[in-house]
Amino acid sequence: MRVFAESTDLRVRHRVPRGLPTSRAVYPPHLREPFDTTLASAQVDPDQHIRHWAAVAGQ
Fold it and tell me: Rounded to two decimals, what is the model's pTM?
């Protein structure tokens, strides 16, 4: 999630979410806040593929 937040490389930003579980419930408590931050960032990303991941993960 840190890599997603810090990367400016679109290829990296496409790949990172694909490797992340989309359910908040599977994350241990100490990773839920970073997941929420990543999700919020992805929801407003200009890239449609990243926003699509966020839509799936936000359900």
Answer: 0.83
